[in-house]
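Researcher: Go.
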Amino acid sequence: MQIVTTLVERSAQLDVLRGAAGRVGPGAGAVALVTGEAGIGKTALVRAFAADLPPHWVVLSGGCDDLLTPRPLGPLRDVARDGPPALRAALADGSRDDLLEALLACLAGEQPTFLLIEDVHWADDATLDALRQLTRRLDRVHALVVLTCRPDDVAPGHPLQALLGDLARAAAVRIALPRLTSAGIAALGSVDAEAVLASTGGNPFFVTEVLAAPDAEVPATVVDAVLARLHQLDPAAQRALEQLAVVPSHVGLELAVALLGGLDALAEPERRGIVTVVDGAIAFRHELARRAVERSLPLIRRIELNRAAVAVLRDRDDPDLPLLVHHAVQAGDLDTILASGPAAAREAAAASAHRQALAHYAAVVRHAQRLGAAERATLFEEYAAELYIAHRFADSARVTADAVALRRELGDDGALARSLVALSRNCWMTRQQQGAWAALDEAETVAGRSGDVASAALVGAHHLTLLLLGDSAAAVLEAAPEAIARAREAGRPDLLAICLNYTGSAQVLRGDESGLAALRESLAIAVDMGAEDLAGRAYNNLAYSLWMLTWMDELDATVEEALAYSAVRDLTSHGFNQRCTKAEALLLRGRYDEAAAMLDALHSDVEDPGLLGEVPQRLSGVLLARRGLPGAEQWLAPLLDEALQQPDRVLGRRAGDARALVEWCWLDDRVEVCRPLADALLAVGSPDLDAAELVRWLLRAGLIERDAVAPIPGLPEAHAAGWRGDWRAAADAWKRVGAPYERALELIDSGDVDATLEGIAVLDALDAAPAARIGRQRLRDLGVARVPRGPVSTTRSNPAGLTERQLDVLALLADGLTNGEIAARLVVSTRTVDHHVSAVLAKLGVTTRREAARRARELRDG
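Model: Structure:
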């Protein structure tokens, strides 16, 4: 029976697409998202729409494939086949900015363009990032962009979620396809529509397969229907379809000829509608049919067919590396995995598809013992670099240590020095400071022995990094001239960028705002040469420097620019760092609910954030302490214990922790606990700029005298005025910065009744009850008889400040559900629920689920 291709019950959806196309004009692009389960007819809908477009429309399309590791920019390479040469050139050159500009130019012609990207749930990171950038620039195109995806394949944390968020902001048209009704099935032919509906659930693909079954009875399953049709073909056609079934992508005609020895065997399957030829490629009419055939094959037969695909792909002049590695893994072809896997990983990394690069490296590393020592060392170094970018610092450190061991055996001092520097950086991020310095010392010895100028320059640049991270800004400035000279001598702009980054940071720390120029130069060099990791580091330190100077407007713009840069390039660890900075800025601006939501996400997104995890830990504690909510102790008590054991180590970059601890103890009326921190600061004499807030808090707590600390050059007026006791100037300065909490604290410190009343009003508005309570006591001390009462709590049902999702989790927890059951109910991962439950327990100030359930019932019953 000829396959049924008629579209039924889709006129409304076609009308929505036509309406979107009607709104397209020059500089007025539109985007639509077509969603639905596998087999629901997404492809049939969009291709019917494309076929009905007026002839002056340009139609371009690409698709994502269900490979073990997706092809970097695969669908855009499909588009480039029929697109302009500039798009193909940009893809070949690998420049992300050039690719975006070429894509925008491709879609900005005089004629309107219909761009279709199918199955974006399988897209690689680089493709998703390109689409995100495109959807943010619809005012530059003359095109309708249509994406299709299966929402069932988009689990929490899926990279596609960021694109879906951008589509929401771009006011994308959303078209969810429903299943067919019995009336729709009846319209397809003279059948028992109710029986077919019962068998297929109304899924259009299932329906058409059942209707195409060679017998009159409804098959028991759709797989039975597909295979029944397959078995009606001659043996040559069956063998050809089996070969195609192991290739989870559209197969180009040239590749199909090579795989099958010709195309004659596919004539009958095409006539019967089992396969189709679209855009110069052959594919099963639907992915579900391909999977049905593939899964029906015995394992030995699948291995045989994948080996045949490997043989053909390997012999091509320009093999599709992700496809080749996919088949090699399926075939258990270790030689091909080892030969082509690293190249596929490098290709993915060059396209900023770092998740895909990690997957390729992981496939190779499993069999690394088959490689020689030098190849293994290189493999481990590259794999470790991707692990670092992915915020897997502990794994990166372990793999780097293996690379160092191999480099020692090989006796290549230059390579060993480079590997030791990487190990040093990993050790620092995993809180192994002594190991970091030991690795750097060895690297310096080895580089000196090698006589390699580049290795010596690398060691010098990383030395500046450790000095700054170790809170020695003065030492950075002393060592910087030689390090910069080495980088220039070696002709290494990447190392020069590192040197400028940490030199500029040290200058700002010492109160010299001209260091911002060095930081911006570092960023420009890194961006210009495409050194993404170095650009991420430059963004991080530039943002931190702006924070210290309280240049908030530029800080906000820099952080947003940095977040966009990191998101587009899948720089997970840098994105984490930048989100921490944004959360700190939100806290300063008094936007506590937004800060809380961001901090909750930071706690749950990364299992082991390493050293970077200390920032959201501190900020969460501060936020809870300011609001007088349970849970502050969970976050801050460990920091306080560590600080009191080693008070001399809480200055420099740890000064933020010390400041948070003094504020917590001040709010809790136990500032004497922090006396060792004051003593440590006094021992320094002249602290760096990052200790400015700490000094102000020690003054507020009465733990130091105003003349005990020498003024810091370049100290922002908001801090300087507070230091010298000018509360009016300090309050005004904090108002200009946009920091209501800090302004209110200066007002209640004033000793002036009117100012204190104003400060209390600000604190009440922020729901900063502990500080407001101190302000009211100050009024009583000033002799005010009638102190205004605080506001009646508007959060009686949510006194712990739980987020909406945490309230959902608490309600289900109170009903006795396990974490797994809660995850299923909320459609999130069990790990995400684990994080939410921990946060709920902390905020409620309880330690067990039973106590949390009891507290939830108390809140609910009022």
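Model: The domain at 804-861 is CATH 1.10.10.10 (Arc Repressor Mutant, subunit A).
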